[in-house]
Specification:
By secondary structure, the chain is mainly alpha-helical. 52% of the residues lie in helices and 9% in strands. It folds into two domains: 83 residues, Winged helix-like DNA-binding domain superfamily/Winged helix DNA-binding domain (Arc Repressor Mutant, subunit A, Orthogonal Bundle); 93 residues, no CATH class. It contains nine helices and six strands. Strand 5 and strand 6 form a beta hairpin. The longest helix is centred in the first third of the chain and has 28 residues. It starts with a helix and ends with a helix.
């Protein structure tokens, strides 16, 4: 009994961090940040009659060509059920923020498009809260780059788990060529823009994104994560 007590005491006082505890703390920290941002958005936008999911739909439509997308696309990218997406878009239509149209070739397909009023409501002034940007500025430049690479990896993991879709990241784009150039500053290449890219230039939501095949994504991911470290 005494030996077990001594063993536990040594483990607790050894100073070696528990990996499980560390990942739990990281997850808890990210959850706190997410809750804080949602709460702030709700306080700011709720008074204008927009809930968090309504805001997400407007922001998603704003990122699409012609500010339009099918209801099924909205549901898939926001990871909500189709009836939920339909209900939210119907509410936004009543508020004159979106308009719905049925596809002339297939009446079962319904498209939602931002109205001018809807576009104004999710303009640049309503995007990522300034306080979150300020919080990232508290990090050093190398820490910011490390955080960005870490976010890319976390988003990739969530995609593989089926918890997140629609992330328009460099690493899953058909134009992305990881570690194609010598030198640590700009080792990657974007064939669409035909320019070298550094880790600090990685995009999590790129407007010229074109999805790569699964095989290409897997190959790019191996080269991105295995050829070098941050």
């Amino acid at each position: 009994m005494a030996d077990r007590h001594v063993s536990k005491s040594k483990t607790k006082s050894s100073g070696i961090p528990d990996a499980t505890a560390l990942t739990t703390q990281l997850a808890a920290g990210l959850e706190k940040i997410g809750l804080a941002m949602k709460s702030r958005t709700w306080r700011r936008e709720g008074r204008a009659g927009l809930g968090p999911l309504q805001r997400q739909v407007l922001t998603l439509l704003r990122s699409k060509p012609d500010q339009r997308a099918t209801i099924s696309t909205v549901a898939n990218e926001l990871v909500v059920r189709l009836p939920t997406a339909s209900e939210v878009i119907a509410t936004l239509e009543r508020k004159q923020l979106v308009r719905r149209r049925r596809d002339t070739g297939d009446g079962r397909v319904v498209t939602a498009q931002l109205t001018a009023k809807g576009l104004r409501s999710c303009g640049p002034s309503s995007r990522m809260p300034d306080r979150l940007a300020t919080a990232t500025e508290a990090l050093s430049a190398p820490e910011q780059v490390t955080l960005l690479r870490s976010l890319v990896k976390m988003i990739r993991s969530l995609q593989e788990q089926g918890e997140l879709v629609g992330a328009r990241m460099c690493v899953s784009c058909q134009s992305f060529r990881p570690n194609q150039h010598d030198g640590a500053d700009r080792p990657h290449h974007c064939s669409y823009l035909n320019v070298p890219l550094g880790d600090r230039s990685l995009r999590l939501d790129c407007h010229v994104y074109e999805p790569a095949s699964t095989a290409q994504v897997n190959e790019a991911w191996v080269h991105f994560t295995g050829a070098r470290t941050a």
